[in-house]
Structures are given as structure tokens and as C-alpha cells.
Amino acid sequence: MGPDRNRRVSGAWIGLVVLVVVAAGCGGSATGATSTTASSNGAGSTYSITGHTTLPALAPPVAIVWSPCPGGSSLQCGSVPVPVDYQHPDAGTIQMTVSRSPATDPTGTPGTLVFNPGGPGESGNQLLSLAAKEFPPAIARQFNVVSFDPRGTGASDPLRCGTSPSGATSALPLPSAPGQPLPSTAFFTTMARACQAQHPSTVPFVNTVDTARDMDRLRQALGVQTISFYGISYGTVLGAVYADLFPHRVAAMVLDGAVDVNASLVVQAEQEAPAAEQSLLHLFATCEQMAPCPLGSDPEAFFTRLATSLTDHPLAAPGHGDTTPVTVGDLDTATLFALSVPQFVPSYYPALLDAAHGNGGPLRTLALAFDTDTNGAPLVDPLWAITCNDAASHPSPLVAGALARSLAAKYPLMGAYAVTYTMAGCVSWPAGRQPVANLHPTGTPPILVIGNTGDPNTPHIGAVHLAAIFPKAALATWRGWGHTWLLSGSSDTCMQKVVTTYLTGAGLPPSGTICN
Question: How far is CA 347 from the centre of its chain?
């Protein structure tokens, strides 16, 4: 629910199990990339597809055979075969796993609402049963809510390169001196090389463009002409790409916790830093009003002292198989997680106090929620594969290091970490074959875009920019803290009415609608 990479927070639905959080992110894109127009079985778009301007025609997939999901849940499970490479569909397939939460009203004819929880890299199937409970009651009654594990994630041929989630959370965010590369460069270079060596035939195709094509194969297997879609965090990137490739297949689309899809990784970091800083300062101000604040009378000073201590003297590894020392990187990662999912703030304060007294285990546990799926599977490899394959330009280690120092000077609490969060895995990643660039959908129906004023993960400016690229879109703003409306404010009746009215066909709200 990070990277757009900012959008990695959907793992927070872990905690509602132990919760949903990304997103966010990520898979953002850069402007100014050279692209060719590529036909996607009938829909024009702007993606760099080297040497190809058309794709082979594919026979429709067979209908999904639904059966009860394992574990005794009320969900139904199935699968849809999708080509690894749409340019060469005979080169192999992936069995994309799908799930369905049936409409609770058995008397009507339900609609189809496809849901993506963000990440990138999150398992939609693992999160569906939790997400379905957050939708407005009328949506749950009137729609079969369908989700899936995107290629390279969950049970859909997951990308596993052996990268340590603890190594990712503990990555140091700030070079110690000017002119030095981003400190995590060596760690993520090892990740990039391992993925390319171990999965050479699949890594290039773990990207949002091909996942959007997979989603249309899912539509066909569902036997429907159009689908409605609800994407949160990184899911807004997937939704925007699908709408661009297949505008005539969209009935309605809600993009919640919207990502600035046309922003470069550098711009994403520049947007992320002030949003995260604002949220943390708000958290400290709220703590100061408590009696007493667990972090003392000056929580900002407490945080700064702890960050300095963890920079100079990392804590011992938690053990139990985790041999990586706890660093300021874990503090920053856990902090963004708690800001994104306010339900975890009561656990965040004790984790900081424990770290201040030499026990970094609770801090590491919170940090790992960003880099593991709800079943504990590591997300680092698919998260960065999607993010970096989508990005049209990858800043060098030195550029990333300089940006971290620049943002740290402006936003001393979270500025440097914004760079690690948005681009660290891409500084050594090879160029993607189908980056998302200069996205400007045409022919789409009216789209509903939602942004939170206090979202630390997908800043509100991203929702403003995303709404602007659609010919017909309304921006609804939720004035609240946390990542996405669905995750952080689903009980808000004002936003429930906005979403329900739109998805049930009664039209968009006035653009500029604000719910408090």
C-alpha cells in the first residue's frame, strides 16, 4: 500500500490478520521517453515495444472454473492462462491465479468489480477476503469482487531471486558525504543481477503493461464485455494502463490513493519527501496532545536522537533466523508503515521505545510488513522488478545519492528515505522493455480518482495529476491521514456515498468534491 514504489502499503492488511496496505507504489513512469504506438489487440497506446507495433491475435481463454478456495473461506478460486510474452504467445504461459468474493445479494444479477490491492507485488488473492469487507455495503451486495495475483507475484509464477527483506528494510538512506552513491547500491545491484541470472526468461515481462493485458484476459475468461475496476495505490497505475490499452472495456474505474503515473522516479521522490515529513510531524503533534506522549514532551527530538543512534550504532540482529542488524533504515521503513496505516501507531510507539533501549526486534517486525506479503512471502524482488521495468529512466547511484542529501536538507526526518523508497532498487536495474511513459488515455468513460490530503505514501498531488490525464474524470478528496481512503477511512459515509453512487451507475460526483 511504496514504490509506485510509493505504494507498497497493502501489506498492512497483514495486521488486520495479526491488516491492507503499498502502495505504494509504484511502477511510476517518466515523462519524455521515446515511445512507439503499439496495438494491444485493438487498442492503441504509447509504450516502448522494441521492434513491434502490433501483437499477435489470441483466441479467448476458456471460462474460469470456480471452486472453493483452500482454507475454508467463502472465496472461490480459479486460474487463467496468460502468455509470458504477448509478442511471442507460443513461448510459454503463466497460470494466473484468481479469486472471487460473490455478491452478498443472491436475488439480483451481480456486476463484476475487479480489485487490485497495490504493492506492486501484493497478492490480490490473499487480500481479497479482507478488502471485500472494506467496500461500501451496497458494493458488496451488488458486485462479484474479483482479484488475482499479478504475474510474478503470489501464486502466479512468483519471482524469487533470494533477496533478503531484512536487507531491504535496513538499507541506509543517506550517503555520509557529498559525491557518494546511495548507500544501498551494492545490495540492490546484487538483487538485480540475481534476478536477471535466475529468471532471464520471465523478469523482462514482470511489468504493468503485460499485467494489464493479463487483466483483459481475465475479463474474457469472466465472460463479460466490460469490467468495473477498483485499484488502490499501485493499483491506480495498473488501472490507468488498462484504461489506456482497453478503454472500451471499462465500465467504471475507481483509482484510490492515486499515483502520479507520468512522474519520473526523481519526481516521485520529490513528491514523497514532503508528504511523509508532513505526516510524521502531524503524528508528533498528535502525540504531544496525549497525556502523556509515549515519546516524551518532544517526540520529534526523540525521533532524531534515535535516528542518529541507529545510524552510528545499529542494534543487534533480532535473531530467529534474522541476522541483519537493525538500522536507521528500519526506523524509516517502520515509520512510513505506521504513517500509512494509522492502526499500527499503538505498536509503533513501543517499538521506538524498545529500540531506544537496545531492542530492535519490534522495529524490524513493523518494517518487514512493507516487504512481505500477508503469508510471509518476500515481496522485494517482484516489487522492484515491476517498479524498475515500468520506469522509463533509472537514476544512477550518484544521482540518487545526491538527491537523498538534497531532500534530507529540506526534510530532515524523512527526506533521504524518500529516495530509497522510490528508486533504490532501480539504480542498477536494466532498462525495461515496456516502460509506462507519457500516459494519456483516450476514449475512456468517466473515471473517479480519490486522493487523501494526509497520505504519506501516495501524495495528494498524484491524484490531481492522474485525474488530469483522463478526458473525463472527477477528483474526490478525502481529508484524512493514512494511505488511501479504502484503507484508512472506509467507514466515512460521505466517501461511501461518492463511491457507491459512481459504481452503481448514478454518475460522478462534482469534480473537487471533498469529504472530511
Answer: 23
d(CA 73, CA 101): 10
pTM given for the model: 0.92
Give, in order, the Cα–Cα distances in Å from 501 to each of 232, 397, 468, 470, 509.
18, 47, 21, 20, 8
Spell out the residues 6+ positions from residue 342 whose beta carbon is closer than 8 angstroms to its own. 481, 482, 488
Rounded CA gap, 76 and 69, in Å? 5
Q: How many CB atoms lie within 10 A of CB 53?
A: 9
Helices vs. strands in the chain: H and E counts, helices first: 17, 14
- The answer to whether the beta carbons of residues 25 and 234 sit under 8 Å apart is yes
SS3 label, residue 108: coil
Please check whether residue 213 is in contact with residue 96, taking contact to mean a CB–CB distance below 8 angstroms: no
Checking DSSP bridges between strand 227-232 and strand 143-148, what pairing results, if any? unpaired
CA dist 301 and 295 (Å) reads 9
User: 6 forms bridges with which residues in the sheet?
Assistant: 24, 25
> Along the 516 residues of the chain, how does pLDDT read in single tens digits?
444 444 455 444 444 433 333 333 333 333 323 222 233 333 333 343 333 348 999 999 999 999 999 887 889 999 999 999 999 999 999 999 999 999 999 788 899 999 999 999 999 999 998 898 999 999 999 999 999 999 999 999 999 999 999 999 999 999 999 999 999 999 999 999 999 999 999 999 999 999 999 999 999 999 999 999 999 999 999 999 999 999 999 999 999 999 999 999 999 999 999 999 999 999 999 999 998 999 999 999 999 999 999 999 999 999 999 999 999 999 999 999 999 999 999 999 999 999 999 999 999 999 999 899 888 899 999 999 999 999 999 999 999 999 999 999 999 999 999 999 999 999 999 999 999 989 999 999 999 999 999 999 999 999 999 999 999 999 999 999 999 999 999 999 999 999 999 999 999 999 899 998
DSSP per position, 13-45: GGTTT------EE-----TT---EE--SSS---
Locate the DSSP E strands across 395-472.
447-454
Q: Residue 440 and residue 434: Cα distance in Å, rounded?
A: 16
- The full set of domain ranges for the chain reads 5-515
157 within 8 A of 170, measured Cβ to Cβ: no
Q: Which CATH architecture has domain 5-515?
A: 3-Layer(aba) Sandwich (3.40)
Q: 376 exposed, middle or buried (CB, 10 Å; 0-12, 13-18, 19+)?
A: exposed
Owner of C-alpha cell 510474452: 85
Question: How far is CA 377 from each of CA 14, 17, 123, 155, 371, rounded to the nearest angstrom?
Answer: 12, 15, 10, 10, 9
Q: Alpha-carbon distance 122 to 238, whole Å? A: 13
Reading the block at residue 106, the C-alpha cell is 443472491
Helix 208-222 to helix 380-390 angle (10° resolution) is 100
Joined together, the cell numbers standing for residue 380 give 522485494
